[in-house]
Amino acid sequence: MAKAFYRLQKFLRRTQFLLFFLTAAYLMAGSLLLLQRTRLIIQQGSHGTSTNLALTVPDEMTRVGIADPRALQNPQHGPRLLVGMDALQEPALDQQHSPRWLVSRNSELRQLRRRWFHRFIGNQEPTQTSGFNVIKHTAEHKGTYIGCFTDDSRERTLKGTVFYDLRKMTVAHCQEACAERAYTYAGLVYGAECYCGNTLPATASKPEECNSECKGEKGSVCGGVNRLSVYRVEELRAGARRRRNVIYRGCFRAPENLTDTFPASLIQPNLTVEMCSEFCSKKEFPLAVIRGQECYCGYPTGRFSLRDGADGLRCSGTRNTSSAAEGKYCLVYQTPVQDTRCMDRKFLTTKSKVFVALSSFPGAGNTWARHLIEHATGYYTGSYYFDGALYNKGFKGEKDHWRSRRTICVKTHESGKTEIEMFDSAILLIRNPYKSLMAEFNRKYAGHLGYATDRNWKSKEWPDFVNSYASWWASHVLDWLKYGKRLLIIHYEDLKQSLIPKLREMVEFLNVTVTEDRLLCVENNRDGNFKRSGAKQKNFEPFTQEMKDLINRYILTVDEALRGRNFTGLPREYLPR
């Protein structure tokens, strides 16, 4: 009996070991299979979409139309034909033609497209500044450390919000930014936010309460939670008093009562632009207004909106002095100081009942539109994607889940029935495809603020890019016209030319009430931090005649579709070249 029991026990032990071994083998095999499948998907994204996922287009549909570039992971095989509007309903098979219409919208291909679309974003960010100790850093930036102060966002003394940099903020970077804007003090908070001003905060805090390390400089302190590390940057201001920081806005008719219109004034014999600008900068006003020997400081308001400029001849004299005819006209200059009346932003306190998209083709100005909307409404915008470069520059909605409904609207470049019908309404931003294609090509190879090199434009990447992206420009608009539930069409060019009227339309569409002064503040800060700078190519025409023929047919298709939905057609400048 004991012997039989021993054999049974031995068998069970072997069985237990065998089961354990089989389970481990099964898990390993599954992991290897998953890795192999991932590799296969990536290869598909690199070498082209499988033919069994695409449909071709018949001959009779080649007059005008679309091919969706999301299927074209290999840009060398771009769309060569155009599909008619009615052909969008039911693409058919044809063996004679090569352009393909993607009908499969499975999650794997969407993820591939997302990786393909954003693969350059990670390369846009410069390497983080290496760490320095506090003593070396203090010697480098030359500013005088004043101390640690309490930061109250509702009653902030350093009101000149210059920028956020949630990855690369340093003390020197903040000081230089404040110096260029002619401020006396630079304050850092949360390790990543920089504020400027000419008046010290009222309440001092204990030095140890400023304990947040600068995001871009190990060993340096950049404030803390509701605590400001404040530096005096007067030593740097001498180099910041350059004339280039004062922008001439033009000659304007003076308001009837300048004293009531402008909160600060100065009367100075032999008044110069530098004197008036310096005075207004110290008072932290963005406008310096000169009439004869009188200097006035203030903001653009409903009483003085800077919309209707006068003939410059009416403002007699030079830009250094002004003896405007009969005192009816005045010279207006933009000081280095930032207009801060529209800088406060936050997330929605309650979830939005209406899910709104801010949709556009890449390169159509979506980031700029987000900047305008955030500062006009005071609420963050979200994003269907995550762009670290935008988040680091203050678009805090980037990290919020796009379906959280805590943002006023959500950026998206997506199209297709499923992706569009998720939203209750949408602002559809459309830009000239010639400009959009160039802007997106610049972003792809030089980031949000740079320009692609001559080598990029002359390489085979550019024609491949046009072939793949031009049809996407058209299909994006057509899909939103077809599946969008409630649309507001905004043309980038109209927004640029008539900013306040178009911005007011957008704000009303978002069901937000804003003041006229806030809209004027947005206009005064219209460019934001994402205007391209650097050596822009002059008289550069990257489009061949073949490219123009392709794009022009897409323009006509989109224009016809807009008019068919009772929207205004495309602006005249879009029309075929």
Automatic annotation (TrEMBL):
This protein's record includes keyword Signal: no
Q: Which Gene3D superfamilies would you find in this protein's record?
A: P-loop containing nucleotide triphosphate hydrolases (3.40.50.300)
**What InterPro entries has UniProt attached to this entry?**
P-loop_NTPase, Sialate-O-sulfotransferase, Sulfotransferase_dom, WSC_carb-bd
The signal peptide annotation in the UniProt record is none
* Residues annotated as domain WSC: 142-234, 245-342
Q: Which Pfam families match?
A: Sulfotransfer_1, WSC
Alphabetized PROSITE patterns for the sequence: WSC
Q: Where are the transmembrane segments?
A: 17-35
Question: What are the alphabetically sorted keywords of the record?
Answer: Membrane, Repeat, Transmembrane, Transmembrane helix
Top-level taxon of origin: Eukaryota
Gene Ontology MF terms: sulfotransferase activity
Q: So what family is this one in? A: Belongs to the WSCD family.
**Do you know which PANTHER family this protein is assigned to?**
SIALATE:O-SULFOTRANSFERASE 1, WSCD FAMILY MEMBER CG9164
What is the name listed in the Swiss-Prot or TrEMBL entry for this protein? WSCD1 protein
Source species of the chain: Pachyramphus minor
The gene is Wscd1
